[in-house]
UniProtKB/TrEMBL annotation:
GO cellular component terms, A-Z: cytosol
Regulation: Activated by a monovalent cation that binds near, but not in, the active site. The most likely occupant of the site in vivo is potassium. Ion binding induces a conformational change that may alter substrate affinity.
Family that this chain belongs to: Belongs to the carbohydrate kinase PfkB family. Ribokinase subfamily.
Cell location: Cytoplasm
Residues annotated for substrate binding in this entry: 11-13, 39-43, 139, 242
Organism: Heyndrickxia shackletonii
Reaction(s) catalysed by this chain's protein: D-ribose + ATP = D-ribose 5-phosphate + ADP + H(+)
One GO BP annotation of this record: D-ribose catabolic process
Pathway the protein contributes to: Carbohydrate metabolism; D-ribose degradation; D-ribose 5-phosphate from beta-D-ribopyranose: step 2/2
EC top class, as a word: transferase
Organismal lineage: Bacteria, Bacillati, Bacillota, Bacilli, Bacillales
Source species, domain of life: Bacteria
Keyword check for Isomerase: no
Record-given protein name: Ribokinase
Amino acid sequence: MSKLVVIGSSSMDLVVSAAKRPSAGETIIGDSFKTVPGGKGANQAVAAARLGADVLMIGCVGKDNYGKAILDNFKKNNVRIDYVEPVTHYDTGTAHIILAEGDNSIIVVKGANDLLTPDYIDKAKDVIQAADIVLIQQEIPEETVEHVAELCHSFQVPLLLNPAPAREISQNVIEKAAYLTPNEHEVTILFKGLTKDEALKKYPNKLFITEGKRGVRYFDGEKEVLVPSYKVEAVDTTGAGDTFNAAFAVALSEGKSVKESLQFANRAASLSVTKFGAQGGMPTRDEVERKLQA
Ligand code: RIB
Ligand code: NA
């Protein structure tokens, strides 16, 4: 069992399904409303645990009902929560999601996730040092990502940065992370002035551009490789990226090759989109392996 540490957001997803998105000033009638656990960090932790890793989450929730529900959900999914602190004065983070016309649009209100500071991370230095891999995303303060990149680098623990949602990051973080997994939009913000191909060439076996339905692209040192994704009937693509990142990290930490790890991650992500909710449909290890053998 490999040891994964996930550092990131935990939120409650408030999901409205409707036939279309309202335009500015318009009111429409929707089809349904559901409340499900989400947040990129929590999603990645749950996905990795379902895939059989020993997962420890570092994060913050509010001392409110959403926070309680998120902690229960971690326990149900075997994610260790010694470093998920319920804080006062801040509400649990929320993500306001509209599912319409086969796609989602999301507004994130970070709430307690903003209290995941460098000082808070320092309390968990020992577990970070003991990890096989650390996973982090960008729904938490920028200086925390910077700090974690420094720590992981000094401990020689590989860091996978999923730079979502998009924001600029320092060259220091780019250099110190072991793996970067932007989508096509995020990569343009990360590497201003470089074309996609130039960026891939500059960071062989480190930069992985996720291209949704097409698959994942990287440079293997000699050539550009596209590892295709699997075709499925998508019900809800929310959290597909989180499943991908978690599965990729789990496979890498077990010593699988980059290519094999990407195939494993694509398979896991393709299963996750067949059910409603970011965490609905996140597969178990067995489910992914059965599909890979089929
Ligand atoms: O990556 C998907 C997640 O992003 C959702 O669960 C939602 O919380 C948003 O932040
Ligand atoms: Na899903």
